[in-house]
Amino acid sequence: MSANIFVTGACGYIGGSIVAEFARHKGGLLESARIHAAVRSDEQAESLSTLDVSVVKIDLSNPYALAGYMIRNDVSIVIHTATSIDAEVVQNLITALKKRREANGKKAFFIHTSGLSAFDDNTGWPFGEVRDIDPVYFLEKQCTDSYIVDVLVAEQTQAAGLTGLIVMPPTLHGRGGGTWNRLSPQIPALVRAAIKNKQVYKFAKDREVVLTHISDLTTFYAQMAEAILQKRALPAGMSGYYFTVSHSVRWWDILDCLAATMHARGLVDEPTTKVWPSNAFAAEALGVPINFAHSMWDSSPKVVCVNKDLIGWKPVWNRERLLQSIDEEIDDFLELGVPKSSLLDSLRQARG
């Protein structure tokens, strides 16, 4: 019998790309798995009609509806990408998956999508460089107010008899493979702000940013799902952290390249960058609350990825390929516009 995989945020940038990757995957046990795509609206559901997946419009705040669906469809793997910060939703999903496990006694896996910006000193991380094989859970536990959801996943999956895995991507780039939101929050917002102001801006301090192309990230999820279906032993629970960095580059290199390329296309007045006049100006131009401007576009976590080798992940994108693809990033924004159903939406709402 084929496995059933339930993906939340199935029309988001990450979740939508995972659903598309899984639906089109060839080879291995994943090819025969049934993908269940959780969405929020009829319009989103319609967008997924071109893929061979089971689409469900479901309220993630309703644990009873979630449990009923998972039991009826014998869901064995949940991949949660809808939100990295809503503890209630995470708890509801874990509770529902636990009830499915209790109903038939089969093993169940909860894969939570978090983020590496948590480990940046700008956001209050006090421990410096960290590896995913370090005692990350215990370090986060000392900063519970900031890392409460990761800690909850590690503790509650273990308490529920589930296998918990926490995937932590860095800043992402590239066109997503999904059917709804296909843009990342960061680079398209920089393009939008530059067009609006006829100028590419940068923060006063240059920092090294860790990155991954969305296609490399979806490959990682596919390889992790395949490892689970093959019943391979993976670090889980309080040891189940997986950092997914493929390369790094200095922010100023990205922005210098962006300025030169946009100027050549007549989109900005100057081929060089200027420093943001103020944090308030940056936040307004980027469309986020002022406290998010630095964390989203000036993040520089010091991390080392080790557990990726257990998955067999070998990303194909690197610094040079990113800088050579800036034209594509601009084209994607001009074609697709601002990201929809994304992290930026919730931040704009918070901004009021």
UniProtKB/TrEMBL annotation:
Named from the GO MF annotations, one term is: aldehyde dehydrogenase (NAD+) activity
Mention any one GO cellular component term assigned to this protein in its UniProt record: cytoplasm
Which superkingdom does the taxonomy of this entry point to?
A: Eukaryota
Q: Where is the NAD-dependent epimerase/dehydratase domain?
A: 5-227
User: Which protein is depicted?
Assistant: NAD-dependent epimerase/dehydratase domain-containing protein
Q: Which organism encodes this protein? A: Penicillium cataractarum
**Native organism taxonomy:** Eukaryota, Fungi, Dikarya, Ascomycota, Pezizomycotina
